[in-house]
Fold this protein.
Amino acid sequence: MKYISTRGGIEPIRFKEAVRMGLAVDGGLLLPRSLPVPGDDTVRGWQADFCQGKLSYRQLAFEIISLFVTDIPANDLGKLIDRSYAVFGDPAITPVRTLGDYHILELFHGPTLAFKDVALQFLGNVFEYILRESGGKMNILGATSGDTGSAAIYGVRGKERISIFILHPHKRVSRIQELQMTTVLDDNVFNLAIRGTFDQGQAIVKKLFNDIPFKEGYHLGAINSINWARILAQVVYYIHAWLQVTGDKDRAVDFSVPTGNFGDIFAGFVAKRLLGAGRIRTLIMATNENDLLARFVNQGDYSLGTVKATSSPSMDIQLASNFERFLYYLNDQDPERTRQDMERFAASGGLTFDLEQQQRIRADFAAKRVSEAETRSTIKNFYREYGYILDPHTAVGVNAGQALRQPGVPLVCLATAHPAKFGRVVEEAIGRKLTLPPGLAGLEGKKSRCRVVDADPEVIRRFVAGHAR
């Protein structure tokens, strides 16, 4: 399996090199040169094994990831996967809870109680494996809108040969999210709160990665969803959820995905192609009031807006860093056209898509913008009806799913974070106090370490240079 750039400026590379490169050196994003096609017999074999209790999450992960990773020996890859998911609190890793007509895919059973753990535990172990093999070192640089930072930190804290620098928007993440990052005091962890938005942090990261001498000189590594390994790990839970919901029936399922950065839902796009026609029908793209992606699907308008602070802060994004990957497929895998589109977007802040393109987009996606009032009422009403507590991000997905589901098609809603991470909003909606799980209890009283800095690439550049391994 070889990987190429969406902009066509690199020679095909193997998985381990793609992981280390993160962002392609031509400024594009890395993708498999061609997606593997397991075939109906393989998929039906997964169904049969799953129904007979012979296919665990870890075993399925090995089956799927092996299709994309051909330069890590099978025995080593299996150990990496086992180590990554041994730290999850539910034996199913990503269980599905059925509540009435809803199937809630719980992705928050990892160490930081957010869906990012599924990918970042795996990526942290892969980084460590590659560096141990090569004798190299790495300085991870990433930006977070809330959950990526803590999941990435927990994935690499204390690991030899790795330091991690995480930018988060100052006072624009939840208090729990902030504490999960800043109370990790390992010597290889650096938290930087920027005076600005997540989009500004993400732009700084991309700018420094595009400075090739700096990137290579300081051995920069990427943990944001621009790193293909993250998307790959997330593909697994879509297929695992499909198996949990369908059992031995070969039928279609819809997924509702709260998204702002296009990474999680792009993993669903890949899973849809791996499973083959008729198994994942529609990927419902649920956005909060930062509705860049909803406008893209519903109006063919992909243009920058002003970031609004909401109760679902991990989606407070107006620049979706994984959009370019889907654009590459929308452009019929034409890297030159994709490069031109992204250059036009960089210059103008917007792209528009004609009716034929919009029809192709809607063959895979539906979308809804969910307001703050709708988010809070969904938390309240879902709790009243089912006794189940949604976090605000999950509530956005449930609300969009309610509006766009098709009768007779099972609906899977991705639960991306534990509700206690957003306690104030949730408690106001359901009218009672939440009990903090062990992973969050006591954070408020712990010592923390963080530096508040300007959202300036040169400030970040100097800090990384002064603290890098």
Notes: The chain is about 45% helix and 15% strand. The CA atoms of residues 85 and 93 lie 7 Å apart. The mean pLDDT is 95. Residues 116-134 form the longest helix (19 residues).
